[in-house]
Here is the input.
Amino acid sequence: MNLAAWMPLLLVLALACALLAGYPVALTLAGVSLAFAAIGVATGTFDPSFLAALPNRIYGVMGNGTLLAVPLFVFMGVMLERARIAESLLTAMAKLFGGLRGGLALSVMAVGAVLAASTGIVGATVVTMGLIALPTMLRYGYDARLATGTIAAAGTLGQVIPPSIVLVLLGDVIGNAHQQAQLAQGNFAPDAVSVGDLFAGALLPGLLLVAAYLAWIAFVAWRRPDLAPAIPAAERESTGPAELAGALLPPLALVVAVLGSILAGIATPTEAAAVGAVGATLFAAVRGQFSIRLLREVSEQTVLVTSMVFLILIAAALFTLVFRGFGGDEQVHRLLTDLPGGVLGALIAVNLAMFLLGFVLDFIEITFVVVPIAAPVLLMMGVDPVWLGVLFAINLQTSFLTPPFGFALFYLRGVAPPTVRTLDIWRGVVPFIAIQVGMLFLLWRFPELATWLPQAVYGP
Here is the structure.
């Protein structure tokens, strides 16, 4: 095998080594790609004309109306987090279910599901619940592994329950890959795959995942009541309907306004995200939390997160150009199509690779680097794009929980008391990772879980 055939593999290995060394992701993607492009030009294995497409790629990102939803959803999530919605919800739900075995854990998971559909910010959710719920759960005798695993898993629900930033990014990448696959097959008028399709497709699997989490907590509380005891009656406060409604109705109203407008076809995801951002600001004002200082802090946090996402996106575009310039996309196509088992074998290989990469990489890197390379091949093999996008979203959700680099684990470790060991956190998330993998197999066996609602709402 000549040098040109080895260059794509060497590029990926060099990138992996640089990322594991701890260098910033965006700078690593761009730096390694440019270095290999220079080596390729010097050795005659890379055509520099591929880099001429980079300005158009950057301009395409800047003019992409779909990606405008990212800063708007981030703003909405940060604003709601600063408005202390999680504190109100946790307090009300703990009072309501605290008398049950496992009631606190069930409350945390339920609040996580509501926050997932209204904020979608993993760090904010995990940190908030870690600060508020974890000390309470430990004080009442909860097992540290169950308590930390519940909080970490609840915090990651925002990545699969729409509206979700992961689904926005995946929707854009899958949509581009679908168009690329259709053009390669001679269809010059392909049907578009939108973020709204992925939102509709992920809704039912996301709710099933929440139900599975709740069932596991209830099972543990039933089998081992000493791990999840009820709050004693003497220490339990009661909650009235007014308090519960006051904590629950505002975020649910925001969810209905955002997600309902998308599914009903009234608004695009970007327009709905703008509605959510304004609604979150009004919600903070009603609660007496709004101020110019708060607006500045939320805006600064939104700029930081959005800048990180788009810098990685542009760097990943450069990496993809260099990878294709070396013929890496053709090698991936041959590899996946030659695997035993046909489409099934290719799907298993790609999802297994994404799951393993989730141990060491963030979902953004996997979305922008792996998906654009593998998705066009799978779509050309006849895989439904919406089902593939939802499958990838649930797979990427595991990257937040898999040690050693799961973001949710880092966030929770930062706020957990010293008595909680890091090993307790790692062991606590294992059952929830297993449930996520089980959901992948369920979605694999019944693709209708992801395709039924989009077809019912938008048509075949």
Observations:
- The chain has a mean pLDDT of 83.
